[in-house]
Structures
1.
Amino acid sequence: MSASFAGIAVGVLQPLRQSASVEVERDDWKERNPRSSGYSYGTETKVFGEPKLSDGTLARLGRNEGVRKMQTAERAAVVGSPDLESLTTSHIERAFLTVRQELKRFQRKGLGYSKSLEIHQLAIALHFGVYNFVRKHHTLGTTPAVAGGLEEKAWSLEQVVEMTQAYFQRKAAV
C-alpha cells in the first residue's frame, strides 16, 4: 500500500477503462470529438408534464413543489451502438445522490464547502477510496474493489488512516 490515497480514484477508474465495451449515458450529452473507440454513448431525454388535478386541470404549484410525471423518455445513440433498451440514467443519478448524501461539500443549499481546491480533491478521493475499498456493499456482499478483482480483501479504516497520515507526512517533508 505505497500508493497515496489521493491517487485511489484514478487508480480505480483505469482498469474500468480498459474493459472491452463500456456504455455511458448522460442526460444532455452532445457529441464532442469522441477520443476512443470501443465506447458507446447514448442519450436519454426525459420529458416531464405539468402536474394535473383529478379533474384534468393544471395544478398551480410553486417553483419547486409537486411531482411532475414523466411523459416520455427518448433514447438515441450518439457514438457507437449502445443497447438502447437498457440505456438509463438511473445508475449515474444514484451515484450522484450517494455523493451528495455522504459529502457535505456537494449538498444542495448547504453550508459545507472546501476553502481550497486541493482539500476538496483530497476529500473526494477519501470518500471514493472508503466507498470502493472499505465499505461493504449489500448487493455485492463485499467491497467494489474486491468484487472487481483490484484487491484480495477489504481495507480497514485503520489502513486508510495510516495512508492518509503517510500522505500528509510526505507532503510536509517537501
2.
Amino acid sequence: MIFRNALPEEADKLTVLTLNSKRYWGYPDEWMAMWTEDLTIMPEYIEKNMVVLAEENALLLGYVSIIEHASSQIVRIGEYHISGGFFLDNLFINPSYIRKGIGEKLMNIAFDWCKEKQIEALYVYSDPNAKGFYEKMGATCLGEVVSGDNGRALPFLVFEFHWQI
C-alpha cells in the first residue's frame, strides 16, 4: 500500500469513492441525491488543500483531506465559538476495505501533517457512523451541529495536539 498526494485529475475517482463510501452506511437515495453536490470533489479542491490517498496496485483504497477555514469564519457549537482553524474535511474508505486499518493509517498521515505544520487543533464535523472511530483515534466530542439539509445532528469533535518542538 502506498500513500501519496492526490492529483487534480483524480477528482472524479475520489468523488466516486466518496459516494460509494457514504452509500455503504445505508443512507436513503433521496439523502444521497441531496448530498451529491457537497460530496463532489473538484480539481481545485485538490490543488488548494491537503488531500492524501491510499492505493494498492492502482486501486484507490481511501483518502483523507484537511482544509483551513479563515479566521473570519466562526463556528458556534453550544458554548464554543471557534474562529477559523483546520478541519478534517473528508475521510472516506473504499467500502470493500472498511475496517481493515486504512482509516487509521490515513488519520496518522493527517496527524503527521498537523505536526509538521504545528497545528494545535483539528476539528471534525463527523458523520454519526464515524464518531466512535474518531473518538478511538483520540478526538473529543464538543457537541452536535444540526445539519441544514435534513435536520440530523452531526457530532462536532476536536483532536487537540501538544507538539514538542
3.
Amino acid sequence: MGKRAIFVILILAVVWIILVEEISWQNLSVGLLVSIFSVYAFSRLFPYDEIKHVNFIKLATYPLWLIRRIYMDAFFLIRMIIGDAKCGVIKEPMHIESDALRFILSDSITLTPGSIFLDMEDDNIKLLCIGKRNVEGFPDVVGSLRAIEEFLKIAEPHKKDEKYENDENYGNEDGEKQ
C-alpha cells in the first residue's frame, strides 16, 4: 500500500467521522475499516491506470466551485424561464483528453441547470440545452461548458509535446544523444 492509499484512507476516515458527528474509538475504527475496504475494493474493481495521472489534489476545490456554478446557473435560468426560453441540442468540441475528466465534465454539465449531457462522440459532446429565444445558438450553455472545462484542465495530466516526442535529443540540455 503506497503513501497515496494511506492518505486516501485517512481522508475517508475523517469524512466518516464528520458524517457520523461523534468522535469515539468505535466510530474511528469503523471509519478506518470502511475506508480500507473502500480503497481495496476501488483498487480491484476500477481501472486505476486510466485515472492514475489525474491530479486529485488540484481537483480538491472542484466540488465547491461546482456548487457555486450550479447556483449561479440556476438563478440565471430562473430569469430566462420567466422571460422567453427555447430548447435545443448542440454538439460542441471538448478540449479534455483524460477519460476520467471527461466523465466528470459530463456529470457536471448534467448537474448545472440549463443543460443535460446526451452523448460523447470522439472529441465532441452533445447537450440538450435551454437558452434565450431571441439569441442565436446557446452561448450561455457553451460558456458554462467552457468554464467547467477550464477548471478541470488544472487536474489533467500533461503530455510531452508531440513534435519533440521522436527527437533523440528531447530533454537533454546539451543536445547530446541520450
